[in-house]
Amino acid sequence: MTADVIAQARAERRTLLSEIEAKQMLAAAGVNVTETRLAASADEAASHAAELGYPVALKVVSEAITHKTDVGGVELGIADESALRAAWDAIHARVAEASPGAELQGLSVQPMAEPGAEVILGITQDQQFGPVLMFGLGGVFVEVLKDVAFRIVPLEPRDASEMVREIQGFPVLEGFRGTPAANLDAIESMLLQLSEFAEANPDVAELDLNPVFARPDGAIAVDARILLTSDS
Question: Where are the domains of the chain?
Fold first, then answer.
């Protein structure tokens, strides 16, 4: 699966994978991600949603669009088929206005995940040290607070535990003002999975899982971005 996804992208001279492709690679590596399907029409989206179960999210899929929310390319919490068809039209209208000329592959359909504390996990390639793993609070917090921890791959279990606990926002994960505590073991396990993923996939230049919902019952990535190296 992983080799096929990379080979397809290389054949098309692409370095940015779609969210669907990124999640396929991660799921094959055992990382817990929301199931995501591509729809080329509203009818196909409705069929996927019926199988996945409402409520669902719709997201634009385009090689020309990196930040989907910036162009109005995301609709969340869609409750039924009527709302889905309205959301389909609304996304296309907003994207056409915000990013005219962008070629769309379709929209992705995925079930809404139960929310939790939002964290981000990522991989970058350092010229000197090779793959480096990153962890921090997710969503907008990572851009505003820059509260992240880094470790060089490969990680040991102790490294994963230290990464989670050294960010300033760690109290959020312990449970804050009545919010439930996140399952720290699940977060650490995902960090170790990404460490193995980085070692096994040197073609991956960058990876972002943001947000990952960390809940008492586990952790799940609801969005994923993978950028391949420019070398073939």
Answer: 35-112, 117-228
